[in-house]
Amino acid sequence: MAEIFLKNAWYCAGWDHMVHQGRKSIVARKIAGVRVVLYRKPDGGMVALEDRCPHRQAALSLGRKEGDSLRCMYHGMKFRSDGVCEEIPGQDTIPEKACVRAFPVVEKDNWIWVWMGDPAKADPNLICFSVGPGEKGWNLKTSQMHVETNYRWEIENLADLSHLTWVHEKTVGGDPAYGQIRPKYQITPRGLNTIFWVRSVDPTGAVSHLFPPGTKLDICFDIQHTVPCNWIMRFRAFTAGTATEGESNGKLVVDTWTCQTVTPCDEDSVDYYYSWGCSDSTEFPGMSNLLGGTLDEAFTEDKIMLEAQHVRRKEEPNRKLINIGHDAGPGKMLWVLDKLIREEAGGMPTQQGVTA
Amino acid sequence: MAEIFLKNAWYCAGWDHMVHQGRKSIVARKIAGVRVVLYRKPDGGMVALEDRCPHRQAALSLGRKEGDSLRCMYHGMKFRSDGVCEEIPGQDTIPEKACVRAFPVVEKDNWIWVWMGDPAKADPNLICFSVGPGEKGWNLKTSQMHVETNYRWEIENLADLSHLTWVHEKTVGGDPAYGQIRPKYQITPRGLNTIFWVRSVDPTGAVSHLFPPGTKLDICFDIQHTVPCNWIMRFRAFTAGTATEGESNGKLVVDTWTCQTVTPCDEDSVDYYYSWGCSDSTEFPGMSNLLGGTLDEAFTEDKIMLEAQHVRRKEEPNRKLINIGHDAGPGKMLWVLDKLIREEAGGMPTQQGVTA
Amino acid sequence: MAEIFLKNAWYCAGWDHMVHQGRKSIVARKIAGVRVVLYRKPDGGMVALEDRCPHRQAALSLGRKEGDSLRCMYHGMKFRSDGVCEEIPGQDTIPEKACVRAFPVVEKDNWIWVWMGDPAKADPNLICFSVGPGEKGWNLKTSQMHVETNYRWEIENLADLSHLTWVHEKTVGGDPAYGQIRPKYQITPRGLNTIFWVRSVDPTGAVSHLFPPGTKLDICFDIQHTVPCNWIMRFRAFTAGTATEGESNGKLVVDTWTCQTVTPCDEDSVDYYYSWGCSDSTEFPGMSNLLGGTLDEAFTEDKIMLEAQHVRRKEEPNRKLINIGHDAGPGKMLWVLDKLIREEAGGMPTQQGVTA
Question: How large is the ipTM?
């Protein structure tokens, strides 16, 4: 089978508060098919090791933190934070191969990022831009969800917003205008930037009651989508202006960031970490909480759709599918991903480069 | 693997009341390995489409009824009741292949029947005879059950009533006389007719308390079994008479129809729809309700047996089995089914015709 | 795939009280991949048959006891306790092959033992030594647990007690001394005997509050481990003496037997039957109950570890593992088991014999 995961990439392993200094805070994850255990050293530094003892494959996530190290609580082998074994009870010599794979791990914007490929290539500059819940001037609310689907269907989902009209009719979508948009896409070395406006539309389902009857909005979506599946959007709403191109000339009433990342656990499930919230300047009581809660609702709508889709795509993986105009975004984003996977697997970069 | 389902056949998709005019009444089924979505048009007409959008295999059963059409609520593609796509949001042209498979569907005797094969061959005359719960002069009570077994084991179960003695000792069987019966079978082009009497036996378990102590009954079973697995029985009980052949000369005290159909979902499960009830002329307070409720009990007994059997038959599919006399009915019914499956797959009809 | 179960061996099917004289006491087990049904005859004698009717693979465990026989409650075939069919309802002749496999079965020390191989080789002398809960002078408490792991990982677990230190820190282990032990092993024709002392250690977690502060104990483990996975230990604790070799010269304060047997159901799960308790002479109020209850706690600790390990070993069955000193016991015990499996499969006994 062809490789389906990009190795040389930062994958989000959760919000930073999920792995804390508590004695028992040792967290098991599955990332791109690999079991990872996460814990913090006494100085707060994050450690990511393979969650599999080299002795008999016991779960290190059932282990015990001892200083900077992690002890396997099956036979007591103790591993340093770099994965090197420093103690095997009952013997003096330690075989050189008695070590655990250690993963480069970085915290940024309150997300934990793990590099699943060659550690020598783990460049922190490749971590996706995002706005953390701790960012000054912003009130982002965080959440997470497990979805039993393949992460490629999540990429298709996020790279095309026309589905807001249908899947999210009652929450973050609803206006048929979303279904008519033909955004401009800009392919980047590791993703896709998209910006588009919908103008003079009704407020979306979940927030429509907050606006006076008849309010029309100009809405701007400005999205940075990067591999493996990070999706960062500045979402702004203005009272409807008269401009038909470029910035709205209405009044900015909602200025928000939503930061989302989908981490494939394996081929059949993902962990989804996300946030949404307002700028201080457009906040009003309850607004950021509403946005955060709305995402939980909306992503439950996606979960139902994507899990039913995944069942069907697994049943008939070779069924010939038809394409539509809205596949442009998903197609480009998957093209970038597959190109990087191919290159990593030893194939040559394609001639088109990254701006096809 | 050899085909295990007959395609050119009507399969029951449920009782008519299961798919109604309500805005959200869109029903998902799996029939003979194929996902089917059912809904009613505003005029009440039933529609059956494949439950799989041709775009990205989303579940159409998560869709929305719009007039006679069904809209996929992932990207908004809208399909007519004949499966032809009539709208793709965001574009004017519609690829010719953007259509969903539509299945011939007919309602008869309060059952919904879907034709899973070549639509050109969908002859409503092939729908099995039955007596619906709405039939005048009869009081049939309906029910249904999901069973995790292969439908061939259901055919074996229904084509031999000797199991009443054992599996249904406390409900619809119990008398050892059932275990001794050697019925006459008449093979038909698409099934098996069976008629037999047991004479001067005790009332069966579930109804025995309704008769005075010592009551003996003559019971007639008259069964039409057709492919894929429809099973229609007129069941009559008389006070025991003196006749040893043909009609009983006792008094008819229970005159009933039970109509049953087993729809294979896939190789490992079936949906079972069934009814039982008395004629007006032999009804007395509570009798038809008792019969309906007794079937629920009895088929739970079958479910336990057939699910345990299915586990074992899957574990050892090639184990050499031994045959007994009571396999005559099952053997003939499976012979008819397999002959039709072979012919459909392109094989020649066998020389013996249908009266082997 | 290579055979993973030894056939010519006695496997424990449970405590004798689990299969009783009650009309409905018919017990289904899966032993070394084979479905077995157990019941008692009116004289109390135990019967073990394959839980699979030769007719259509119905579950005989859904059957009915009739005298010494078991009737399949699907079509009424009745089998003697030796598996021979004695009745097929509706016919006079009984095909010779209409019989069920019968297994030699013996009760000993309140355990039920089933021989899964050639009946001619079923030598009761091969049943492992144990001390039953009914043994005079002892107060053994019994229990059982189902664990979703491969029985080889249970063998590894039991053949090395260094894991007491880590897995059972709070229950039956805890002292780092256990992690330093290098026991002497004596390979036997069907297993491994191990005896070792830990001296002047703290009382283990679960019983430490029963001893005055500062108490030190000399503890002796004397273990007979036999195939497939029986594990019988005399466990004694003395107040710490001055002897550094051989018997402690402290006072015997705890004298116990724990008898444990792990029966593989299939490759992915085991049934674990075990007991622990004191001699009358070292019993004090509640002590044997405490020991029995402590095993339930400790084996729940093992279950968590072994199930997580099994998931990982199935994910990467071919991963190269590293070995440590404490693998000596597990290695020898698996060597004995694999040697017997190979010999049974027709291979020659190895030259080393049984004392490698």
Answer: 0.92
